[in-house]
Write a structure and sequence with these properties.
heterodimer; A: 300 residues; mainly alpha; B: 49 residues; 1 helix; 73% helix
Chain lengths: 300, 49
């Protein structure tokens, strides 16, 4: 593994902040907050705030440890070459200390503020992302995103458990929705940045199985995900607001996935359907979780 | 031609001090915030509100 030279200057706080992957954290915080707000029990405001803060810090810790481990990969990909570690603005030891410190802090604070189950789930999500996804799967199998997606699926479950102290069917379904959403979301991206992953020898699906197989897989996962997303409604776990919104959004998602499956382009410039699906997939998750909260607060 | 002092590159020592000061200030705010947060958590646990 490539080691960065220890930076001569002390780390700038902006680089430490960038290490936490703030862009990813936004979706994590939002889904965690929605999981908490959708729960039948509302914790005191400060406890709810602390739970979300801990989930954000835990996600930041996982992001920092991911970047600490992947300096060699990040330096080979255009998309990530300017991150603090590959760019040489930060040394690896600082990143490791920062990530480990943040991880312990977030888990301990979660236990103090909420309950041990939420703390265990938070610790599991960090360990899953760092050990199972980053260290074990990412460089070894094209299924890296499929299994590793579980790490990103934890936040709403943790939010719910922080509020209630229990694991119930609805947060488990929310976990399943994000788990099934991750492959089409990341594979759409990996289709148009395929050369980056190929240059870094990361066995993403388009690199290993080719674009056509990836597009078929996107289609399959999109259909299963859209069905799973609606499931809480017929199961009586949510009302018509959530059911209606997810049904419409699911149809649009599948329509965009069909456009991807039909596309045969090999040049990123010609991959408009893939870029559209990638952008829509982010909006999809935001609206789905917003609808869940609206449903819970307006109908019950 | 006279040199404008402000336009000269900062000596490394000065940059190090500036970054240390900035980080120390942020750490102080974070620690202060943490103390307040712990106090509020304790109150919430006691009163249940």
């Amino acid at each position: 593994m490539q080691m960065t030279k220890p930076a001569a200057l002390p780390a700038d706080w902006r680089d430490l902040y960038a290490l936490t992957k703030p862009g990813v954290m936004r979706l994590v915080v939002f889904t965690a907050l929605c999981g908490l707000l959708a729960a039948p029990v509302m914790p005191p405001l400060v406890i709810g705030f602390t739970a979300i803060l801990c989930i954000a810090l835990g996600a930041g810790a996982a992001g920092a440890l991911n970047q600490w481990y992947e300096v060699d990969l990040d330096s080979k990909m255009k998309r990530t070459a300017n991150r603090p570690l590959p760019a040489g603005r930060l040394d690896r030891q600082t990143a490791l200390h920062f990530g480990v410190g943040l991880a312990f802090f977030s888990v301990i604070l979660m236990e103090l503020a909420t309950n041990w189950l939420a703390a265990v789930l938070l610790a599991s999500s960090i360990l899953f992302y760092v050990l199972i996804y980053t260290v074990w799967l990412k460089r070894r199998t094209a299924q890296n995103i499929v299994i590793g997606g579980a790490a990103g699926a934890f936040p709403p479950l943790i939010g719910w458990v922080a509020a209630t102290g229990r694991i119930e069917l609805l947060p488990v379904l929310l976990f399943a929705i994000i788990f099934l959403w991750t492959p089409p979301h990341f594979w759409a991206l990996s289709l148009f940045v395929r050369s980056d992953y190929a240059a870094a020898n990361v066995p993403m699906m388009p690199v290993v199985a080719g674009s056509a197989a990836t597009r078929r897989q996107i289609m399959v996962y999109s259909v299963i995900m859209a069905a799973a997303a609606v499931a809480p409604w017929p199961l009586g776990l949510t009302g018509w607001i959530y059911g209606g919104v997810t049904a419409v959004l699911g149809l649009i998602f599948v329509a965009f996935a069909v456009a991807v499956a039909r596309n045969e382009a090999t040049e990123p410039k010609m991959m408009r359907p893939e870029k559209r699906l990638f952008a829509f997939s982010i909006l999809y998750l935001f609206v789905l979780f917003a609808a869940l909260v609206a449903d819970r607060w307006l109908l019950t | 031609m006279t040199k404008v002092i402000g336009e000269e590159p900062k000596p490394e020592q000065e940059i190090i001090r500036a970054r240390q000061r900035e980080r120390a200030r942020i750490m102080a705010w974070l620690l202060g915030g943490f103390v307040v947060l712990l106090f509020l958590i304790t109150l919430a646990k006691i009163t249940g509100k």
